[in-house]
Amino acid sequence: MTESAVTSFDKALAMVCELCPVCLHARHHQQGVVFNFVKSIETEICPFCKAYERVHGQKAHEKRNKSTKR
Question: What is the extent of the structural domain holding 32?
Answer without folding.
Answer: 3-56
